[in-house]
Amino acid sequence: MGMKPAKQAIFVFGALAFGWLAIEMAFKPFLDKARSAEDKSDPARDPGDDDDSADHAQKDLPTESDAFVSDENPATV
């Protein structure tokens, strides 16, 4: 073939990257659905946490991430 090994490796890597991107773009709707279903099926995730943060946003209450108190971030509630 006459191609140097480094040049051949770069060519193969480029072809694999192009193929991966083409598959991602072609199947984007299906992959997004599958990824969101996978996120929802996480056993460590508590669905109640999502509703809790929405309630806090409506009532202007601090969320769990706001509950961090230190000398630089004193509690004002």
Automatic annotation (TrEMBL):
One of its GO terms (cellular component) is chloroplast outer membrane. Residues 35-47 have a biased composition (Basic and acidic residues). It comes from the Eukaryota. Residues 35-77 are annotated as: Disordered. InterPro entries: OEP7-like. PANTHER family: OUTER ENVELOPE MEMBRANE PROTEIN 7, OUTER ENVELOPE MEMBRANE PROTEIN 7-RELATED. This is Outer envelope membrane protein 7. It comes from Populus trichocarpa (Western balsam poplar).
